[in-house]
Automatic annotation (TrEMBL):
EC number: 1.1.1.312
Protein name: 4-carboxy-2-hydroxymuconate-6-semialdehyde dehydrogenase
Domain of life: Bacteria
Gene it is expressed from: ligC_5
Keyword Hydrolase carried by entry: no
Record-annotated Gfo/Idh/MocA-like oxidoreductase bacterial type C-terminal domain positions: 199-254, 356-426
Alphabetic keyword roster: Oxidoreductase
């Protein structure tokens, strides 16, 4: 089918069902039995995706996609040098989805593209590994779940702590009561974030398809204050550090406490250090309360000079009636018992990224979504809690939220922040 015909076909409910039937529920493989992978977004995190797939037997990266031709050419040259073979390149991810010789896509684009890329991939019969945060707003996370279920796709969220055996062991300690009744989790994101200065609007460079880069966001002028990394610090494309590094820690809070979305949210913060183009707060303190479970989450974002807490600068602390547990980074935990904090169990391991990709590809082969360590539901909840905190900060008041309806309680002003106005044709659909 032509590109337009195939896309229109997938957008109809009847066509979607038929497409699912035609594509089947098993991963297609090349003549050598390998899963064929395309990496979407290769400027930053995508480089780690390339390496992880390249290190796993039974899968091959066969295509790199990025709207920046300069970045794309650089990554393709690096790939050839590392693996001794050429890799295909493409600037428009829609053309990747139209190909029947791609089994899996990994999504390492800016945040505002994560959900739509995942949904389009599911509609096209591809399995997906999507970076955190899975969504740019709460509405998108729910649509990702619906798309994965409807098209029977394997979707792994890039919260790799869930694939680290040491951290899994730590969560088991929380479950069996090693630190007693666990009532609170604290998430820490203390990262070195310098000034980004001031950058003017200017003409987009010829090697960057600025229209594709903006995608679902409303059209604006190009500026180097956005491309390539500093988009994190503006609401149109990023979600601040709580929705950047912080999603690993929000996910850890939810996993450790065994909760999902909260009922009450408060947040306070601001910019205290730099006169620069960042829009999101440099410092953000957020509280989330779960009245039914009688639990709460505290979350702290700090830049520049700060202390550690329990030896952690990026990580989590869980508080119980008999002690507390500190999770440091991505691969270790340590337990302290009693009022004096006597040393208890601890464990550490290696970077779990490769384990997380291996877990994903194993599920692609088995078609058992229940074996995923970071299933699509975590893309919704661990990203969603970050979004709720940001909304409370932007409105400057406590918010009451109904986790069952995923709407704020009698608060139409807050509800407006649950989604966004999308720019055609890059629209996250109500009906996936």
């Amino acid at each position: 089918m032509s590109e337009v015909t195939r896309r229109n076909f997938l957008q109809t409910s009847a066509g979607a069902v038929a497409a699912t039937s035609l594509l089947g529920n098993t991963a297609r493989a090349d003549v050598n039995g390998k899963i064929r992978v395309a990496v979407l977004g290769v400027n930053g995190r995508g480089r780690r995706h390339i390496k992880a797939i390249g290190d796993i037997e039974g899968a091959d990266v066969v295509l790199l996609c990025d709207p920046d031709e300069q970045v794309l050419a650089k990554r393709a040259a690096e790939f050839e040098k590392t693996y001794g073979r050429k890799v295909e390149t493409e600037t428009d991810m829609r053309k990747v989805f139209d190909r029947d010789d791609i089994d899996v896509v990994t999504v390492a684009t800016p945040n505002h593209w994560h959900s739509l890329a995942t949904i389009w991939a599911c509609q096209a019969g591809k399995d997906v590994y999507v970076e955190k945060p899975g969504s740019h707003n709460l509405f998108e996370g729910r649509k990702m779940i619906e798309a994965a279920k409807k098209y029977k796709r394997i979707v792994q969220h890039g919260v790799q702590l869930r694939s680290q055996p040491a951290i899994q062991e730590g969560v088991e300690h929380l479950r069996k009561g090693t630190i007693g009744d666990v009532y609170m989790a604290r998430g820490l994101v203390f990262r070195w974030r310098p000034s980004i200065g001031h950058k003017p609007d200017e003409k987009a460079p010829d090697f960057l398809d600025w229209n594709l880069w903006q995608g679902p966001a409303q059209e604006t002028n190009f500026s180097r204050r956005l491309v390539h990394y500093n988009w994190h610090w503006t609401w149109d494309y990023g979600n601040g550090d709580v929705g950047n590094q912080g999603v690993h820690e929000t996910d850890m809070c939810l996993w450790g406490l065994d909760v999902k979305l909260p009922s009450q949210i408060t947040a306070m913060g601001g910019k205290f250090l730099w006169d620069d183009d960042k829009v999101t707060p440099e410092v953000l303190s957020t509280n989330y309360f779960y009245p039914e479970e009688n639990k709460m989450i505290q979350f702290e974002v700090r830049p520049w000079m700060t202390n550690s807490e329990g030896g952690a600068t990026v990580g989590n602390i869980f508080y119980g009636s008999e002690g507390y547990m500190v999770v440091k980074g991505y691969n270790s935990y340590e337990i302290f018992l009693g009022q004096k904090g006597e040393p208890g169990p601890k464990n550490s391991g290696d970077d779990p990224v490769d384990l997380h990709f291996t877990n994903f590809l194993d599920a692609v082969r088995s078609r058992k979504a229940e074996t995923l360590n970071g299933p699509v539901e975590t893309a919704h909840t661990s990203s969603g809690i970050a979004h709720l905190g940001n909304i409370a900060f932007r409105l400057g008041r406590q918010l009451n939220f109904d986790p069952k309806t995923e709407q704020f309680v009698n608060d139409s002003e807050a509800d407006k922040y649950l989604t966004r106005e999308y720019r055609k044709p890059f629209v996250v659909p109500n009906e996936v």
